[in-house]
Amino acid sequence: MKRTALVTGGSRGIGAAIKARLQAEGMDVIAPGRSELELSSTRSIDAYLRSFSGPVDVIVNNAGINNLASLEEITPEALESMMQVNLSAPLRLIQGLAPVMKRNRYGRIVNMSSVFGMVSKERRLLYTATKSSLIGITKTLAIELGPFNILVNALAPGYVMTALTRQNNSEEDIERISVNIPLRRMADPAEIAEVAAFLCSDRNTYLSGQTIVVDGGFTCM
Predict the structure, then answer these.
(1) Is residue 159 among the annotated active site residues?
(2) Which of 22, 144, 157, 170 has the lowest CB atom count within 10 Å?
(3) What are the chain's domains?
(4) pLDDT tens-digit profile of 165-213?
């Protein structure tokens, strides 16, 4: 049976790799751009949900933001923005699409957390808060939706070599970070997508409520 997947943030990086991998699995993949779905706007999310005419079998809440700020630098606006995009938007999409999944008694939901949802570092207060909360949401939804054959998991990547990583870090920075990863390199987006594809597939029949860490051993250090 051909499945339909919704992937947010599917235009670049990990999201684009997940989109391509799910398409290779034979899924129809919907990956809306910002002109169609603006996650910072509840009104945009609700309008997008109203536009759906058919069922969605798979949700990958991949899109997120990471605006660095120390405790003293955090503003109410920054808090609201991070909470909206990283936490409220994924939850609202699940709320809107889960009822059809429940009627069909099938669903696969993957919430993109981060290793920084479990560990942290300076200026990651808001990012860690939202990503750890997303793990909490994942656990509760796995309990609530499990009776309907809807499996809910979180994926927690470590450092990934994306265009944004290269943009924000010099070669020296990337080398310094990589030294602190047991595999001595950052992940390729396709490696994250491979794990996501399993979680989204019919091959996953019993894994739910879990946070899958894909970090090359970084959190073991």
Answers:
(1) no
(2) 170
(3) 4-220 (3.40.50.720)
(4) 888 789 999 999 999 999 999 999 999 999 999 999 999 999 999 999 9
